[in-house]
Every structure is written in C-alpha cells, then in structure tokens.
Amino acid sequence: MADCTQKHLKKINKVSRQLLSRILATHNNIQLSPLKSNLEITEEQLANRENKELAELTELSQKRQILITKLFKNNTAEKMNAESELVQEMIALDIELTANAKSSKQLITEQVLKVKKSKKITKSYQKY
C-alpha cells in the first residue's frame, strides 16, 4: 500500500510542477502584455489566449485538488510518514504555488487598474 501512496504523491507533485510552470508562463505573459499591445495583436486574440491559459490553470488546479483530497482520505498518517520526502516536496511545491499565485494576482490587479485609468483618461479626452 505504501507503493500506492508513493505513486499518488508523485502524481500530485507532477501536477503541481505543471501548474507552477503554467502560472509562471501566465505571469510572464501578463508582464509582457503592455509590450504586446504595441504589436498587431487584436484584443480578441489576446482575450482568447488569456481564456485558454485560465482554463488550463483551472483544470490543473482542480485535478491537483482532487488528488490531494484522495491522498488524505485514503491514507493513514503512518503511510504518509513512510513517504516523508515526497510529502515535503509536495509542501514545498504548495508554498511556491501559493507565492506565485499571489504575485500573479497582484500583477493582474495592477494591470486592471491601469486599464481602468486609461479608459477614464480616454473618456475625459472624448468630452473635448
């Protein structure tokens, strides 16, 4: 049974690394968005790309959550202790995921505020 726990933990860590990779890629895309607006990329293309990235993040996140829930539901503390190295890796990945998600959230918030501000400026110029 410990082998089953080990496989489950390895699967969780693999999905966590995939999710972390997607979050970092999305984070980089968000940072490059102002540069992209100068290129000939339509808002629709940009929105489609962002929707696809969001769907991938959501899917991986849900998959990871299901795996973690099953892990704790189906395994005892003794089985988990036998795989402490993999559990520690899972915890480290979780900490890294949380930090990167918070960073991306802050970056998105800043971009939304910039867009709102630029729309207000545009509206005020249109009055004249």
Cα Rg: 20 Å
CATH topology: Methane Monooxygenase Hydroxylase, Chain G, domain 1
Number of domains: 1
- Please indicate the percent range of residues in DSSP E strands (runs of 2 or more): under 5%
Helix amount: over 70%
Give the overall average pLDDT.
83
The CA-CA distance between the termini, in Å, is 74 Å
Number of strands: 0
Top-tier CATH class: Mainly Alpha
SSE ordering? HHHH
Taking pLDDT < 50 over at least 5 consecutive residues as the criterion, the unreliable ranges are none
What is the overall shape?
A: elongated
Task: Give a verbal description of the structure.
It is built from 4 helices and no strands. It has 128 residues and is mainly alpha-helical. It has one domain: Methane Monooxygenase Hydroxylase, Chain G, domain 1 (Up-down Bundle), CATH 1.20.58. Helix 1 (2-38) runs antiparallel to helix 2 (43-74) and helix 1 (2-38) packs parallel to helix 4 (84-126). The chain is elongated and about 70 Å long. The protein starts with a helix and ends with a helix.
Structure characteristics:
4 helices, 128 residues, mainly alpha, Methane Monooxygenase Hydroxylase, Chain G, domain 1
Topology:
Blueprint: H1 2-38, H2 43-74, H3 77-82, H4 84-126
Could you write a compact summary of the structure shown?
The chain has 128 residues and is mainly α. It has helices at residues 2-38, 43-74, 77-82, 84-126.
